[in-house]
Design brief:
By secondary structure, the chain is an alpha+beta fold. It has helices spanning about 5-25, 45-50, 55-60, 100-115, 165-174; strands at about 35, 40, 60, 65-75, 75-85, 90-95, 120-125, 130-140, 145-155, 155-165. It contains five helices and ten strands. The strands form two sheets. It has an eight-stranded antiparallel β-sheet with strand order 3-4-5-6-10-9-8-7. A hairpin with a 2-residue loop joins strand 5 (about 75-85) and strand 6 (about 90-95).
Length: about 170
């Protein structure tokens, strides 16, 4: 075998090994399957039981979707938890929070879920005319998408959302 042929064969082998190694690694190794011990796809009944909430009071229909409301925390950050169901299966959990502990929550998400796949900032103007900068992080996997924003609908509230890929894609179209 000539040197040129050996180099060509070695190059092909290295490319094939690289592709097979990359194929076996998940795109997002820390992609969650659950939130607060509740697997995505869990029923409303299972969620209300695990959270120890009275479903007749804490679970209701909001904008055509069944939801269960719960006050909790992610690490040391107090959040509201809004468990949203699609066909009686947990599909999304929005987490409104006070924006002051945003950096703590962001660091906790990075610790749990790894570095966000996408991060950007965008200007944010309040109704009163104040200028701020919103920071947005998105982790995106085959099954789950997480979006964390310093400011949600106002500077008084930050927001994080954990959603199934199916739900995220479906609601992004609306």
């Amino acid at each position: 075998m000539h040197n040129e042929d050996m180099y060509a064969a070695l190059s092909v082998l290295l490319v094939a090994l690289s592709l097979s190694a990359n194929a076996s690694e998940p795109a997002w190794p820390q992609e969650p399957k659950e939130f607060q011990g509740l697997a995505f796809g869990t029923t409303e009944r299972e969620v209300s039981s695990k959270l120890k909430v009275d479903a007749a009071i804490a679970c209701l229909k909001i904008e055509e979707q069944r939801t269960c409301l719960h006050h909790g925390s992610v690490g040391d950050v107090k959040t509201s938890e809004i468990y949203t169901f699609d066909n009686d299966r947990l599909a999304q959990v929005p987490l409104p929070f006070q924006p002051n502990p945003y950096l703590l929550l962001r660091d906790l998400f990075v610790e749990r879920y790894g570095k966000a796949g996408e991060t950007w900032t965008e200007p944010f103007e309040t109704v009163g005319g104040g200028d701020h900068t919103n920071e947005i992080h998105v982790w995106s996997g085959d099954r789950i998408v997480i979006q964390l924003e310093k400011f949600g609908p106002s500077i008084q509230e930050g927001t994080a959302v954990l959603a199934t890929r199916e739900w995220y894609d479906k609601t992004a179209e609306d």
